[in-house]
Design brief:
Keywords: FAD, Flavoprotein, Isomerase. The chain is of the alpha/beta class. Helices cover 31% and strands 22% of the residues. Among the domains are: 166 residues, Rossmann fold; 86 residues, no CATH class. The protein contains ten helices and 17 strands. Bound molecules: flavin-adenine dinucleotide (FAD). The site of flavin-adenine dinucleotide (FAD) has 33 residues, from helix 1, strand 2, helix 9 and helix 10.
């Protein structure tokens, strides 16, 4: 089998992992990214003044239950032990998240044991809500008004730019409370931080003789014809020049500031009140607890509607967006020689481990189709 000439649009995790897999199978891979760096939204870089490793597009913690994915990332970078422990400031007090026994006891000024706290929260829950339709109803049904107001209402409103009464109940699937003192934000078996940052790891994934990387250039649909196949990890609607409209996203603004010493004593501090315009403050040096830095780099994070010139971060995926998405999916299915991958190509929020899992599966599925002489799928995972 002769190697094919393949293009990866995007040098984030999707483009890098698919590109690496196919280069190892003997294909000729070109990776192009519009940005002047690799790594996509996982990009990390050391701050020139303080030496702190900064998560440029917002905090990224690696966590997974997928053993193959965990082995995969460890093949390219040493992962240091890291547990994500998030705090929130509400009403002049600092609480532990996700809501756990410590949060409940602190919030109500009590010393309840697990069973007592469970019974107490059940008393708070609004059992008159039979069939919760909205995020607010679901939260009230689970935890009652006090915890809802303190920990969900303001944060959700700031994050999504609308009232929790306008969001579907499905966002809050399970009871968001732990009746023990476990404050590890993620429940996955494997969790850690790449010793030298995500960009170093992705650089090593891309470091293969069959891969050529080009930065600082946006790929257009017209260029696809020059390749045997294109894996596109950019925005689905962008591929079609937004001809059916723009899929809705939330974007983030990061207000960077520095501090001498330790500003907040932890990596992530949420601010749940609507009166505080930002959703959280990230202190980047706490993501690398094995390093030591005098200075500190911090981000205040603001969430707002994504405009045409902004970076799309979180897909909104409410009823209107799903209708437009469905039209784009139909449109995409008439394309030849291109597959849509990753978080933007399929308009879904994807954690890094899921992105890698899907990228490995996509590369394998493409290689199989190629071997059998079949047309490769336009989507390896259905966006809807
Ligand atoms: C604020 C935030 C926090 C997150 N935190 C976590 C976390 O803690 N843990 C976790 O597991 N995951 C986290 N994620 C998810 C993580 O960022 C994604 O899983 C990952 O970035 C997806 O990789 P990707 O390659 O699909 O997309 P991206 O990283 O978005 O890469 C796509 C690349 O394509 C390029 N591109 C697009 N269009 C074109 C074009 N036409 N021509 C050339 N280049 C183009 C873009 O410049 C971009 O670099 C977070 C995401 C966000 C937004």
């Amino acid at each position: 089998m002769g190697g094919k000439n393949l293009l990866m649009v995007g040098a984030g995790l999707s483009g890098a992992v698919i590109g690496r897999h196919l280069a190892e199978l003997g294909h000729k891979v070109t990776v192009i990214d519009a940005r002047d760096h690799i790594g996509g939204n996982c990009h990390t870089e050391r701050d020139g003044d303080t030496g702190v490793m900064v998560h440029v597009y917002g905090p990224h913690i690696f966590h997974t239950d997928d053993e193959e994915v965990w082995e995969y990332v460890n093949r390219f970078e040493r992962f240091m032990p890291y547990k994500n422990r998030v705090k929130t400031t509400v009403g002049g007090h600092v609480y532990s998240l996700p809501i756990n026994l410590h949060t409940i006891n602190q919030f109500y000024g009590r010393a309840m044991r697990p069973d007592e706290a469970k019974a107490f929260i059940e008393e708070q829950a609004d059992t008159s809500i039979d069939d919760p339709q909205t995020f607010e109803e679901q939260a009230l049904r689970f935890v009652g008004p006090d915890l809802y107001e303190a920990f969900f209402k303001g944060y959700t409103q700031k994050q999504w730019g609308c009232s929790p009464t306008e969001l579907p109940a499905s966002i809050l699937k399970r009871l968001p409370v732990r009746f023990n003192y476990d404050d590890n934000y993620f429940a996955h078996r494997f969790q850690g931080m790449p010793e030298n940052g995500y960009t170093a790891m992705i650089g090593r994934i891309l470091d293969h003789e069959g891969i050529r990387v080009e930065l600082g250039r946006k790929v257009t649909r017209a260029e696809a014809a020059a390749y045997d196949h294109v894996f596109y990890s950019g925005p689905l609607d962008g591929w079609f020049d937004y001809e059916l409209g723009r899929l809705g996203y939330r974007t983030l603004d990061f207000e960077r500031f520095t501090h001498d010493g330790d500003y907040q004593g932890t990596a992530v501090m949420n601010y749940g009140e609507v009166g505080v315009p930002y959703t959280r403050i990230t202190e980047h040096k706490h993501f690398s607890p094995w390093e030591s830095h005098e200075g500190s780099v911090l981000y205040r994070e603001f969430s707002r509607e994504c405009g045409p010139d902004d970076i799309p971060y979180y897909p909104i995926r409410l009823v209107d967006e799903k209708e437009m998405l469905s039209a784009y999916v139909d449109r995409a299915k008439t394309e030849r020689g291109v597959s849509f991958v990753g978080r933007l190509g399929t308009y879904r929020y994807l954690d890094m481990d899921v992105t890698i899992r899907e990228a490995l599966d996509a590369a394998r599925a493409w290689a199989r189709a190629e071997e059998l002489g079949e047309t490769p799928p336009v989507f390896f995972v259905a966006p809807l």
